[in-house]
Design brief:
Blueprint: E1 2-3, H1 5-17, H2 22-29, E2 36-38, H3 39-47, H4 55-62, E3 66-68, H5 72-87, H6 94-106, E4 110-111, H7 115-118, E5 126-127
Parallel strand pairs: 1-4, 2-3, 4-5
Helix pairs in contact: 5-6
């Protein structure tokens, strides 16, 4: 499963505050699932206020997750998603399209709080938490 930025921000906040929230419970309920992030998610977190100021902390936070990189298959799915959303006048943010394209290219589910935007993409396996 790819853990979207919304999930990771919520999880990081729960860890920092010592809370057992929705993200933590989701991870506990899916403890045997492989956990992944995309190159775009890693970049979003690097740009963020919480993790982006300390590279060592950022790298430590990302270390449990498999990083899925850019491939030609990801690029193809991005183009396919872009064309479909543009045709219906329902474009979403470019980073979200890259995340969805990566999920489709690798054939994995996407865990997100942002299901409204991602649900516009046909064939994307979305898991809410």
């Amino acid at each position: 499963m790819i853990l979207d930025s919304t999930f990771l921000v919520d999880f990081e906040r729960e860890v920092r505050r010592g809370e057992r929230g929705a993200a933590t419970r989701f991870l506990e309920d899916n403890a045997n699932e492989p956990l992944m992030i995309t190159f775009t998610i890693a970049g979003e977190l690097a740009a963020g206020e919480s993790l982006g100021r300390d590279r060592m902390r950022w790298e430590a936070f990302l270390s449990p997750f498999q990083l899925l990189g850019f491939t030609t298959e990801v690029a193809w799915h991005f183009g396919d998603i872009y064309r479909a959303l543009r045709q219906t006048g329902s474009l979403i943010g470019a980073n979200d399209m890259w995340i969805a394209a990566t999920a489709k290219a690798f054939g994995v589910a996407l865990v997100t709080r942002n299901a409204d935007d991602f649900s516009r993409i046909a064939g994307l396996d979305i898991r809410r938490y």
